[in-house]
User: What shape does this take?
Amino acid sequence: MNKEGIGLKTLRVALGVGLLSALFFAGWTIYHRLPESDSTLPHAGSTDGGPQIKLSIVLGNGLSGASLNSPAELYPFDLTAAQREYQASPQLARTFDDFLARRMRGVKPVPAPADDRGRMLVMIGSGNWWLRATAALAGGETIEWRLPLALSGPEQIVELTLENAYEKTKKF
Assistant: This one.
């Protein structure tokens, strides 16, 4: 009876070690298959050696008197995915702007300065980007754009219009 007890104890220890080893191996395999960064920051959107796109940003015809307040900013960020994430769990932040500010922490923008005709030209990598720009109108109004962009191909043109503006404000 003592021999069966020792054999059974040895079998239990061996099975326990095997189970722990299998769990460790499964976790290790899953860990190594995870993406290197957050899913809303795509690798294809970076400008590090990937295919470059000539992106032209122009003001629409209805904005002939507008002047850009600063260079447009392009962020390697998937705004649409961030909006879906916010809608799936709105308790993360009070407003989408709060949520966006927290998610954008550490993301560096690529500036797209305007030339004397108000046209912006920048070479940028393909992938999902977020465009943010502001312009001032003659009547004291300010227009802001926040556009999600999916860039591919050798060249793309984005037209900033009143229809695709995010917000139009006026100071009194």
